[in-house]
Amino acid sequence: MKAYLLTKHGSASSLKIKDIPEPLPKAGEVRVKVKRVGINYAEILSRRGQYRWAPKLPYVLGMEAYGEIDAVGEGVDRQIGEKVIAGGQFGSYAEKMVVKDYMALPSLDQFSPEENAAFIVNYMTAWVGLMKLARLQSSDSVLVNAAAGGVGTAAVQLAKAMGCKVFGTASQPEKLQLLKELGVDHPINYRELDFASVVREAQSGGGVDVVLELVGGETFRKSRDLLNPFGKIIIAGMAGLKWSKRNPLTWPTLLKNIPQAKILQMAQRSTGLLATHIGYLIEHQQVVEKEWQTLTKFVKDHNIKPVVSQVFPFAELPQAHEYIESRQSYGKVVISLD
Ligand SMILES: NC(=O)c1ccc[n+]([C@@H]2O[C@H](COP(=O)([O-])OP(=O)(O)OC[C@H]3O[C@@H](n4cnc5c(N)ncnc54)[C@H](OP(=O)(O)O)[C@@H]3O)[C@@H](O)[C@H]2O)c1
């Protein structure tokens, strides 16, 4: 089969299609014939060698896909041809991908193939962050950083569906326009305005109850300082951190910019700092099954659909990586294998 097997870390041009043997599902696993692939920022970090959760080289990149079951391992009772959303640590940049049986989740009828491929990582992350960790209430004010991205748009949609007042930051006018269309009450171009001052002004000097933080560094520090009493900041990403394993000169800046708890400040204001990583959470089958039920019911009830900004053919997957790295992309970028 054809697959993007990563043999060394590097730029998008290091992604090359190779012919490799089809993976075989072991006991408790299914194999999925991939039709669409959702691209994640974390895969760009993995490609560069900057992602802790990535497996050891060589491996096929890619954490999520939409497709249909085409083989099952021992003890698995699934229909061949069943349409599924597949999630895992690696393997989706390929014609076939093997995942655990419980991570081949039934696809959603109301979604297009592209939307199905754009769902599990972003929406599970936003769902867990906002609903399980922050325990979002309709009366909450919410700040979403990198709000026009994949996780960001998901978080905005969930928070708006809850009835919250939402602040969202992004870097470009087109992204700000998208945030307006998604119902963000205060879309903020943080390159032109200090987002903390905009929040303070709109809140008559107050802050926000919940922050979904995806950037790190100064964005994290300012967001943390905006929390109201009982407020919670959820760390779900660090897209703004620049470092290299091979360059020790970058390590002190990395350490400075990784979000850290300031216990004294938190005690003074009764605030919380929480964090999530969906990769570790999917090890817990019962958690996945329960949250999948509530999340998919919620998106159906509120008519939420993933935002897909562009679809690239499989042969142009490296260009899809470059597009995301250019920061022009919004919502999700998807690959089609048709
Ligand atoms: N915790 C989890 O389980 C989990 C799951 C999925 C993703 N994540 C993390 O969440 C973050 C967002 O992921 P995503 O898939 O939503 O990514 P995405 O769609 O590519 O959005 C990332 C956005 O971050 C913003 N950004 C701010 N500073 C940046 C910088 N220095 N370099 C690049 N981008 C910067 C950019 O928006 P502007 O140009 O508008 O600023 C960019 O478009 C990533 O750090 C990712 O690893 C975590």
Task: Describe the 3D structure.
By secondary structure, the protein is α/β, with parallel strands linked by helices. The chain folds into two domains: 2-119 and 306-336, Quinone Oxidoreductase, Chain A, domain 1, CATH 3.90.180.10; 121-279, 3-Layer(aba) Sandwich (Rossmann fold), CATH 3.40.50. Helices cover 32% and strands 26% of the residues. The chain has helices at residues 41-48, 113-117, 120-133, 150-161, 173-181, 195-202, 217-224, 251-257, 263-269, 278-281, 285-301, 317-325, and strands at residues 2-6, 17-19, 29-39, 59-60, 64-72, 83-87, 96-100, 104-106, 141-144, 165-170, 186-189, 208-213, 227-235, 272-275, 308-313, 332-336. Strands 3, 5, 6, 7, 8, 15 and 16 form a seven-stranded mixed β-sheet that branches. Strands 11-10-9-12-13-14 form a six-stranded parallel β-sheet, with helices on both faces. Strands 2-1-4 form a three-stranded antiparallel β-sheet, with no helix packed on it. The model has no long low-confidence stretch (mean pLDDT 97). Bound molecules: NADP nicotinamide-adenine-dinucleotide phosphate. The site of NADP nicotinamide-adenine-dinucleotide phosphate has 26 residues, from helix 1, helix 3 and helix 4.
